[in-house]
Design goal:
Strand content: 5-15%
Distance between the termini: 38 Å
Oligomer: single chain
């Protein structure tokens, strides 16, 4: 990629830069641009506020949530933003000759890098708080299963689970603090193994009525988390 081609943090410009790198036989830059496009596209699809009701978007979000779950977590997004910012900066710095353009590349690429660092710090703090709750629950030992059954009132039974409110109530009665709604979404996203159970799902009954199943964490996932190690949000 020559100095006349000025890559910018936009998907279509990265596409042009990738094609230019490929046809100019700069395969390393081409692969790097493909990685940036791939990660950027996945992050854009997972976080876009538009087209949430489209079946294609919902299916892809569930697919990525299942197989690329790290990009749905705060720490995972922080790592991805750091990678994207550093990779884009290194490509622009090596291929741009103008000092002004290099300074501009530094300024532009520092934005995702700073966002990535901030996400890592926030994710670390929230993960530490969740791990403290896990340690307290682990001290319950065999009583943890009974504690779960006591609070799983909405969806009881073997195939049920704790809703976000019930999980927050359980930690409040055990440790004396509640979770914010945003923290609960992060916790359930990290602990629940079934992607369909991580968010509220609206179904239609045979009579055409809407029925909303709330997000819930099953007993197996909860006990597995308590008996396991630290989970990064």
């Amino acid at each position: 990629m020559h100095s006349s081609q000025q890559p910018a943090p936009l998907c279509w410009e990265h596409s042009l830069a990738a094609f230019a790198s490929f046809f100019s036989f700069e395969l390393v830059d081409f692969l790097e641009m493909c990685y940036i496009l791939l990660f950027g596209g996945v992050l854009a699809l997972m976080d876009t506020p538009c087209f949430k009701t489209m079946k294609t978007v919902k299916d892809h979000r569930e697919y990525f949530s299942k197989y690329v779950n790290i990009l749905t977590r705060v720490t995972g997004k922080g790592i991805a933003f750091l990678f994207l910012g550093c990779a884009l900066f290194s490509t622009m710095w090596d291929n741009l000759e103008s000092t002004g353009l290099k300074i501009l590349a530094f300024v532009l690429c520092m934005i995702p890098i700073i966002v990535g660092i901030a996400a890592l710090v926030i994710g670390f703090i929230k993960s530490q708080k969740l791990n403290k709750a896990r340690i307290v629950f682990a001290q319950e030992g065999e009583n943890m299963a009974a504690l779960y059954d006591q609070h799983a009132r909405t969806y009881g039974g073997h195939h049920g689970g704790l809703t976000m409110l019930e999980f927050s109530d359980m930690t409040f009665k055990t440790m004396g603090f509640r979770w914010e709604d945003t923290d609960l979404k992060l916790i359930f996203n990290a602990l629940v193994s079934n992607p369909a159970w991580r968010t509220n799902v609206t179904n239609f009954t045979s009579y055409g009525q809407q029925h909303t199943d709330m997000a819930k964490i099953p007993k197996e996932d909860l006990l597995g988390w308590v008996r396991g190690g630290m989970v990064w949000l």
